Amino acid sequence: MASTRKRLEALTAGLSLPMEPVRPVAPASIPEAPDGPAPAPVNGVETRFPPASAGGMPPRTGPGQMMAFRGQIQQVEGEMAALREKLRQYDGALPTRKMDPKTIRPSRYANRHQSSFGTSEFAGLKADIEHAGGNVQPILVRPLKDEPGQFELVFGHRRHQACLELGIDVLASVWLDELGDRALFEIMDRENRERADLSAYEQGIMYQRALEEQLFPTQRQLAEAIGVSHTWVRKALLVAQLPEAVVECFRSPLEISFRHAEQITTAMEQDRRAVLKRAEKLRGHSLSAPIVVARLLDAKPGFERTERVDIDVAGHKLGSLVRAKSGEITITIAAQAALDPNPEAVESAVVAALRKVRHQG
Predict the structure, then answer these.
(1) pLDDT, tens digit, 9 for 90 and up, residues 237-290
(2) pTM
(3) Measured CA angle at 183 (ends 182, 185), to 5 deg
(4) Which end of the chain is more exposed for a tag (fewer CB within 10 A), N or C?
């Protein structure tokens, strides 16, 4: 083996190949540096990597450009993830637009009593909308299938009413997908409970109407559908089911609480006729809710009255003065007091009773 190698070395001694400049050939998929000429297209399709975005000299080797390109891909993927997160926040959001409030009508499931548009809270909301030039929080409407250009309110009755009275457009979201009555009811109820601005009476009327319209076969199914307890629905219905004669005893049905309805209902179960008889005497007197309930219950001990003072004239009782826990004072004068020949004495007796109850407080 060694002799063969020596013979080959001797035969090739002094021989040399002509030297040519070495021309490195880059693979077809890897271009030259960005400042060099572009490679020729392969099969009519040009394959290039985007230039590296990092500062300094760009890489001139294939592996270096591959690393730079991978860094750019990771940067783009990060930006796409951030954009997807932003879009996720608007998932399910509806576009809003300004609409003429006259083209929008309340739903037949509307839960706003007309009295709610005469409160100081509504006046404040209306003033805020006027100052802002419109409602910032959009209402939700659905198109009326048989009336093109007309819409039905899903929620936002007070905002719609405020814009209607101000004569300005209302900002609204339009639900373009199918929205049945039951889904409308559930959305309306959830929005109102989250805002916590419905009275017990309005809540009860809403539930009562849903049951009458057969949206839900039973109270329990209604409660399960809207995600509240069966007890909550029962209490709300007690308010809505009070006789009209009882409701008219209050200055506004919005003042009736769940507790008031429970107490009145219990009293009516014991003696309905007596409660309704008292209600007839209370209607139109514009008394506070605690006083109305106390009268309907015939001033049961332990109820919300605190002090009671008789109005006496010369040893004869002509009436009484009652102060509730709220501080409101109610004066009751018997009809015979109008026949008293000495009205100054009656007036003095009332003043004395006021002083006495004030001293007790």
Answers:
(1) 999 999 999 999 998 888 899 999 999 999 999 999 999 999 998 988 888 899
(2) 0.49
(3) 65
(4) N
